[in-house]
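Researcher: We are triaging several targets before committing to wet-lab work. For this one, the compound of interest is 2-acetamido-2-deoxy-beta-D-glucopyranose. I'm pasting the protein sequence and the ligand SMILES. What I need is the predicted three-dimensional arrangement of the protein with the ligand bound, expressed as C-alpha cells, so it can go straight into our comparison scripts without reformatting.
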Amino acid sequence: MSIIFFLVFLLCCTSSVLSKKDDEEVLLKIKKQLGSPDGLRWWVKGFDYCNASANIAPDYSYITCTDTGRVRSILLQNLDVTAPFPDAICELTEVQDLLLNHDLGLYGPIPSCITELPNLWEVIITDTSLSGPVPSFYNNPNLLGINLARNHLSGTIPSSFSTLPKLNSLELSGNYLTGTIPPGLLHTSTPSLVLANNSLTGELPKCYESVDFWLLDVGGNQLSSDASFLFGKQKTAVNIVLANNDFEFDLSNVEFSDHLYGFDLSHNKIYGKVPDSFATAAGLWYPNLSFNKLCGELPRGGNMWRFSAQVFANNTCLCGYPLPSCSNWAPAPAPVFSPSY
Ligand SMILES: *[C@@H]1O[C@H](CO)[C@@H](O)[C@H](O)[C@H]1NC(C)=O
Ligand SMILES: *[C@@H]1O[C@H](CO)[C@@H](O)[C@H](O)[C@H]1NC(C)=O
Ligand SMILES: *[C@@H]1O[C@H](CO)[C@@H](O)[C@H](O)[C@H]1NC(C)=O
Ligand SMILES: *[C@@H]1O[C@H](CO)[C@@H](O)[C@H](O)[C@H]1NC(C)=O
C-alpha cells in the first residue's frame, strides 16, 4: 500500500519536476541563442519562470505557464539583439502563444519547426528583420491568429493557411510578398484578413465575395481589375480597405450595405458616379473615395452631412455638397427637368 503510494508519488512528481526543468533548460538555451540580451537578465539557473508577478513589466518579455509548470505563453519583445531566430523555441512543446515583437535585430528565416508546435493558438512575430518565406502552417487545429506584420518576409502567401479550421485573423502586412492572393484563406465567421503594403498582384479571388469580413485590408499592393463584388446591399462586411492599388471598376451601380462602417478605395482607378446608396448606408461613417476617376453630382441628403470634402477629393469631376456645387463647373451640366424645380 505505502509502497504503491510512494511509487505513484514518485512518478507524478518527478515527471512534473522534470518537465518544468526541461523548459527551464530550453529557456536558458533561447537566451543563449539570442546572445544573452540585457532584457532577459533574470533568466538564470533556478529562476521561477512561472511566477508572472516576478517577470511581467511593461515593455519586457514575459512567460506564463500551464498548471504543470510548462511554458504556455512566451513573449520576447524590445530585445536589443543581433541574432537569428532562436529555434530552441520549437522545444517548448506546450506553447500556445508565441510572440516576438520589436526585436529589430532578429535576422534570417523563421524556422519551419514552429509550424510543428501542436498546441499553438496564436503566433505574433512583428517588427523584426526576419526574412525568407512565410512559414506554411497546416497542421495546427487550434490556431486562431497569425500576425507576421512588418518583417522582411518574401515569396508568396502559402495556400496552406486555408487548411487551418479555426484561423480567424491573418495579418501579413508590411512585408515583401509577391504573387496572387490564394482563395479561401479563412473560414470562420467575421474574419480579419490584412495583407496590406506588400507587392501582391492579380485579381482578388471571387470567393471572398461571400465572406463576412470584420476587416479586409489589401491596401498598398498592385492588385487590379474589378473588386465591386465585395459590396452589395446584403453584404455584412464591416471594414474594407482597397486603397493604393490598380483596381478599376464602375462605382455607379454598386450598392453599399447598412453593415459597412468604413471603406477606403482611395488611389485607384475607380470610375462612374457615386451611387445613391452611398448616402443612405446607415452604418457608414468612414468612407474614402479620393484620388480616383469618379465624376458627376454627389448624392444629396441622407448621411452626406457625415462626410468631409476630403472623402471625395482629387477625382475627375465630382461636384455637389460637400464639394463645390455643380453649377460652378464650366460648361454646366445639362439641366435636368424635375417637377420640384
Ligand atoms: C512570485 O514573485 C513575487 C515577487 O518576487 C513573490 O513575492 C511571490 O512570493 C512569488 N510567488 C510564488 C508563488 O512564488
Ligand atoms: C500601409 O501603409 C500605409 C502608408 O504608409 C499606412 O498608412 C497603413 O497603415 C499601412 N497599413 C497597414 C495595415 O499596416
Ligand atoms: C482619404 O485618403 C487620402 C489619400 O490616401 C488621404 O489623404 C485623406 O486624408 C483621406 N481622407 C479621409 C477623410 O479619410
Ligand atoms: C488634390 O486636389 C487639391 C484640391 O483640388 C489640389 O490642390 C491638389 O493639388 C490635388 N493633389 C494632387 C496630388 O493632385
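Researcher: Any quick observations?
Model: Residues 1-18 have pLDDT under 50 and may be disordered.
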